[in-house]
Amino acid sequence: MHDAVPTQSGYDLAALPATLLQMVEEILSNDESSSDAELAQYLTEVGLSDTQARDALAYRDLYRLNLWVAGCTPIRGGVQLRYNGTIGQFELA
Q1: Domain limits of the chain?
Q2: Cα–Cα distance between 39 and 34 in angstroms, integer?
Q3: β-bridge mates for residue 90, sequence order
């Protein structure tokens, strides 16, 4: 199953500089306490435009609810590998 996330713009978040994209993915994966508004503000403070921050937030649930193999994530596209705790292995998303 391939999880498609509609975004507000045509901007490809995967085109962000590698260090910024890694930071965005880590924030989406690990920040469970901030509201969407707080997270959007933080994302703009670290370098995303308002539109890019809103686009990134569209992926928030996918990142919070799944463990992804580095580089094989929803924002990066292509092959997506997430952990299936039931079988104890990574699987195609």
Answers
A1: 16-92
A2: 6
A3: 83
